[in-house]
Amino acid sequence: MSTLELRAALQRHPELSGAEHETAALVAAFMARLRPELTLTGLGGASLAFGFGDASTGPTVLLRCELDALPVTEAELGRPPAGIGTAAHRCGHDGHMAIMATVAEALAAVPPRRGRVILLFQSAEETGAGAAAVVADPRFAQLHPDWVFALHNLPGYPLGAVVVRAGTFSCASRGMVVEFAGRAAHAAQPETGCSPAAAMCQLIAEFDGLAPRFQDTGELAFATVVGARLGERAFGTAPAQAAVFATLRCESNDTMARMSAHCEAAAARLASDSGLGVKIAYEDIFDATCNSDQAVACIRRVAAPLKLVPAPEPFRWSEDFGRFTARVQGALFGIGAGTASAPLHDAGYRFPDELIAPAAALMLRIVADRLAPGAE
Ligand SMILES: [Zn+2]
Ligand SMILES: [Zn+2]
């Protein structure tokens, strides 16, 4: 099977985050033929890692790609989603896997003379759960990478252009769920109950007014209220329950910790003022992806034959690769998918096959740079 045939097969079997079993099987079958020195399957769930070279002779460089596709909505299908066909590769992860497969073929043909390369095919990037699960798997510690690199295709940039940034490349974000619990009453005597309506509205205003408090350092930091729920459509009943859903987003993990603490305190204060119970939870937690200066310098060096595009500010979206850069020096960078490409996650998006060869060559130059004798 060629890498293009692999990509076509992956496209025919798009799977949702955490359920990439067919995808993992296709990758495992493709890689088995290349006889890597190390194969780990079921890493933190459905992730797989393959090693080429010998860690005792030099550093270990880890390259990551993603396995998951995105859900196709009921509105698009015209019926409730069910079974195969309910997911689609609209983030280009199928293309990223084809790039890694191309890198694997090259490493199998000419193994590293010094050090080792780990190719990580990671599950569940879209939910932020996959990288966390890989890092939590005890077998990840045994891989002890010295460097971590990943790329993401970026529509809107010239095809093959390399988009780099030192420091934060993509923002930290997390979904915050605040639930207020009061006491229902007859709508004719609301004063005998305890309604969370006012606390809910004030909390929404608090989220909306959050940005100026945390942008003092010039850092991007804000909350987006994505939903709220209050009571029922029952005109005889004053409500007992309310919930607010907001996404917190900022450039650094430190600011995220401060924003979260501030919002938790505000929710607790509003609950206490109204005599309500409060429950707070987080979902879809992404660290900021912070690129090391040395890793970025390496990318700039080896990408020199290609068009280099600096990113003046961090991308607002999040990537769970931040879990790796929080532990190991490295970088996430972008590679242009073409200025005419539909945006990521859009129904009209397609990964351009023309990117596979230059992106794989770039990854191999990064590996060669980091494994060269005398490389810092
Ligand atoms: Zn995505
Ligand atoms: Zn993606």
Ends distance:
37 Å
Count of all domains:
2
Q: Supply Rg.
A: 23 Å
The CATH fourth-level homologous superfamily of the largest domain: Zn peptidases
Envelope shape: elongated
Percentage of residues in DSSP E strands: 25-35%
Which small molecules are bound? Answer: zinc ion
Helix-strand topology string: HHEEEEHEHEHHEEEEEHHEEEHEEHEHEH
Q: Major beta sheet, specifics? A: 8 strands, mixed
Strand order of the biggest β-sheet:
1-2-6-3-7-18-8-17
Give start-end ranges of low-pLDDT stretches: none
CATH architecture of the largest domain: 3-Layer(aba) Sandwich
CATH class of the largest domain: Alpha Beta
Written description of the protein model:
- The chain has 2 domains: 3-164 and 288-371, Aminopeptidase (3-Layer(aba) Sandwich); 172-285, Alpha-Beta Plaits (2-Layer Sandwich).
- It has helices at 3-12, 21-32, 74-77, 93-109, 129-136, 138-143, 197-208, 211-214, 253-274, 293-302, 322-325, 356-371; strands spanning 38-43, 47-54, 60-66, 70-71, 87-88, 115-122, 147-154, 162-164, 167-170, 172-181, 185-186, 221-230, 237-238, 241-250, 277-286, 289-291, 308-310, 330-336.
- With 376 residues, it is an alpha+beta fold.
- 33% of the residues lie in helices and 28% in strands.
- The mean pLDDT is 94.
- The chain is built from 12 helices and 18 strands.
- The strands form 5 sheets. The chain has an 8-stranded mixed beta sheet with strand order 1-2-6-3-7-18-8-17, with helices on both faces. A 4-stranded antiparallel beta sheet has the order 12-14-10-15.
- Residues 66, 91, 93, 125, 152 line the site of one zinc ion.
